[in-house]
Design goal:
Elements (H helix, E strand, L loop, with lengths): L1 E6 L5 E8 L1 H4 L5 E5 L12 E2 L5 E8 L3 E8 L3 E3 L6 E4 L6 E6 L1
Antiparallel strand pairs: 1-2, 2-5, 3-6, 4-5, 6-7, 6-9, 8-9
């Protein structure tokens, strides 16, 4: 898992590529990126499955902010990003949310 950040000129926006390696998704058929940037809507941001079995999606985010997020795999398993910039407690349970800082 990991994040790749590319800032636009002027650093007002940042293209962030979120990725889940094959080891994290195993034989998953679907993966979604769910977070503050899409109002935690489960199916708004589908990730594309690559030929190597990993999943990726890129988003343009406003710079100078932190965004909480998690991954939903096959509509049943929630995963954090083990390469997130930091983690914060989720208000809905004992788990943490991943955070990207842009």
């Amino acid at each position: 898992m990991g994040l790749i950040k590319k800032y636009a000129k002027g650093n007002k926006t940042c293209s962030v590529t979120f990725s889940l390696p094959k080891e994290a998704v195993k034989t998953a058929k679907t993966a979604f990126l769910v977070g503050e940037f899409n109002n935690w809507q489960i199916h708004t941001t589908p990730m594309k499955k690559a030929t190597d079995g990993s999943f990726k999606v890129a988003l343009e985010l406003k710079a100078g902010r932190e965004y909480q997020y998690r991954y939903l795999i096959d509509d049943k398993t929630w995963e954090n990003d083990f390469k997130a910039d930091k983690y914060v407690p989720s208000p809905y349970g004992a788990c943490d949310n991943s955070v990207v800082i842009v």
